[in-house]
Amino acid sequence: MLNKPKKTLIGSILALIIGTSCCWLSVLAIWLGGVSFLFVAVKYIEKVQTPLILTSVSLAILSLYLYRKDKKG
C-alpha cells in the first residue's frame, strides 16, 4: 500500500496545528479579549471626554494656584 505524499503532508500540518493549539490558542483568546475590552473602554471614554478634559484642566489650575500660594506664604 502506497502513501500519497500530499495527504501525508496535509495530515502532518493539521496534526501540528492541533497539537500546538494548547500554546497559541490561549494567547489568541487573551489578545482578542483584550482588544474587545479596549474598544469598549474607548467607546466609554469618548462619551465622557469633555468632562474629563475640563476636570483635568481645573485640577491643573488648582494645583498651580495652591503651589504658588504655598510658595509665597
Category from helices, strands and their pairing? mainly alpha
Residue fraction in strands: under 5%
Shape: rod-shaped
According to DSSP, the number of beta strands is 0
Number of helices: 3
Provide a descriptive summary of the structure in words.
The protein has 3 helices and no strands. By secondary structure, it is mainly α. The chain has one domain (5-72). The mean pLDDT is 84.
Topology overview:
Elements lengths: L4 H15 L1 H27 L1 H24 L1
Summarize the structure.
The chain is built from 3 helices and no strands. The mean pLDDT is 84. With 73 residues, it is an all-alpha fold.
Question: What key phrases describe this protein's structure?
Answer:
73 residues, mainly alpha
